[in-house]
Amino acid sequence: EIEQPELEETTNFCKMNKDSLVGASCDVTFKEINDINHKIRPDLLSLVHSDFFKYFKLNLYKQCPFWNDNNGYCVNRACAVDVIEDWDQLPEYWQPEVLGGFANESVSADKVRDDECSFLDQLCDNSLNQMRQRGPDIEYCDVEDFHNDQSVLVDLTVNPERFTGYGGEQSSQIWSSVYRENCFSINETGQCLAKDAFYRLVSGLHASIGTHLSNDHLNTETAKWGPNLELFMLRVGNFPDRVANIYFNYAVVAKALWKIQPYLSHLEFCNAYHEDVKSMITSVVSNLDSKIFNENLLFHDDISSKLKDDFRSRFKNVTKIMDCVHCDRCRLWGKVQTTGYATSLKILFEIDSDDEDAKQTVVDKLTKYELIALFNTFDRLSKSIESINNFEKMYNNTLLTAGDRILTLFKGNNFFKLLSNAGKSLSSSLKDKSNESVASNKSQVEDFDSPKLDNVESNIIDTEVNDVNATKVELPKQELNRTEAKFLENEDFIKESNATESKFTEINSDFKEHTTSESSDSETPSHKFNDIVMPSKKAFVEEEVTNNTLRNAWNTEIGNVKDALRFIFTSYVDFPRNVARVTLYKLNHLWNWFVGVPLSVNVESDEPAYELNVE
Ligand SMILES: Cc1cc2nc3c(=O)[nH]c(=O)nc-3n(C[C@H](O)[C@H](O)[C@H](O)COP(=O)(O)OP(=O)(O)OC[C@H]3O[C@@H](n4cnc5c(N)ncnc54)[C@H](O)[C@@H]3O)c2cc1C
């Protein structure tokens, strides 16, 4: 039976018990992965910023092989990929003259093989590709992709994975096609675990992308990039299984790295030319452990070899689906990461013999781009886990900072329900404040002035104290006053709508609820917020938005009908007057013709004919 990550009621964030195992096939807890990640993060970051690991090659122009949809494209600037267009853009020691003209097509395969930089050669010619011997298919992705004429070289560090605005039907289609690959036909022992692993891999990839786009998100009001907690919670944070799947993927890729490390020793990674890549790899992998993932549980006997083939071809399809992504930046990172997982799966499931030479052969056959993808995928997961931990801090700070709670309230987006631990005084002050605002504002507005809100927010954040307990007791009132003053300063900002009024009424009742419950249990405030789950709040907001939208649509339609009726009515009123005007005009023409005045006099002109007519 598949073990699901345990949920813990008392943990607000992601509702996960960090001491539980990441999965049935992983003998590691969430907390242990957090610790490992914390240790290796700096080295891993340096590694993927090294010259060897930062240049990736892909074909951005490949046609979607699954459906005829090659015409759309993402027009956002954020969707674009900056490619290396000139050899000059590469480091100096990679210039052909330094490397002895290895870009020369005529260079012999043997010579390339002997070169300690043989991996680098694939940057400029495909001699290594020709050397690859055909054997049984052990590929989980299409490695030939890297040697296509149309492939471009990309510096991953200048094309960060971040929010691009790509979405809608096209991306949904991609994701549903990816999930559809998880329909295994054969009913063999172990299928359940393999199917679960497949699902967790793609869901973990999806969640990791969601984490990155939330962590590096464009705030359209301030034009700054930064973390967006709300978006993260909506996409990932509120779904413990998605968060757990990121950790699962981390375990899978970590195990693959652990497994190949002894067989990488003969590769020099061009240490002579630039960073000591090899020692960076060692310092990352030495923190990993074999027990992090047990791949033998998935395809453990001959019976499951058919299942393994199915698994492999389905995963290969996932990597190919990336060619259907219309946003180039998303396609780039989709390709890097699916190739990274494909490489991990190849290492985990195809290096299963005790034969050391066979293991070495599989590693030797890895292309440079598979290695790059492998380490960069690990970095993406590592960054996701780091971001999740940061989001957790933000989440807790948001809950504990009274000012933010007030702002959330005024923004009308109170999915972080107001805390009661600020004490009755805060509640009553806020109640007064909200009543005051409701009473004093009559005009209707649709929305608040967000930049101003952000200013207030940043002011408040600036004044945050480190001691969370102190914040709980002392800050609320102080911050309330500051916030209140800010609100009063900006009169137009405080304009309220009828909708806002009802929101305040609702919030007031929230306060009443919290104030009442608080008096009975003021020692353990955190238990009151176990119900903080954004989707339900989203549903609330959405419902409201839907109602507003319906109301607006109704009002617009009624307005249109009124306009049409007014037009028809005025047409009837104007009709006799218009008939009289036309008749007069025609009679004028007739009279002019009758007395012999030329028709041209009615045309604006400097000609004397007009004057003649006047006379
Ligand atoms: C390959 C690829 C790469 C992308 N890269 C980027 C990028 O770099 N930057 C960017 O801004 N956008 C990227 N996108 C788009 C992004 O993933 C979303 O599709 C987009 O933001 C729209 O999100 P959504 O809320 O409509 O739901 P989507 O994320 O499109 O999800 C569709 C549905 O899948 C389900 N779902 C969501 N997450 C999971 C999960 N983790 N596990 C299981 N089910 C889930 C939900 O039911 C959801 O409604 C990429 C898309 C693809 C296909």
From TrEMBL:
FAD binds at residues 162, 164, 175, 203, 206, 235. InterPro entries: Ero1 (IPR007266), ERO1-like_sf (IPR037192). Keywords: Disulfide bond, Electron transport, Endoplasmic reticulum, FAD, Flavoprotein, Glycoprotein, Membrane, Oxidoreductase, Redox-active center, Signal, Transport. The active site is at 327 (nucleophile), 330. It is a peripheral membrane protein. Residues 427-450 are annotated as: Disordered. The keyword Kinase does not apply. Disulfide bonds join 74-79, 117-141, 124-270, 327-330. It comes from the Eukaryota. The keyword Electron transport applies. GO terms for biological process: protein folding in endoplasmic reticulum. GO terms for molecular function: FAD binding; protein-disulfide reductase activity; thiol oxidase activity. GO terms for cellular component: endoplasmic reticulum membrane. Pfam families: ERO1. May function both as a monomer and a homodimer. Belongs to the EROs family. This is LAME_0G20032g1_1. It comes from Lachancea meyersii CBS 8951.
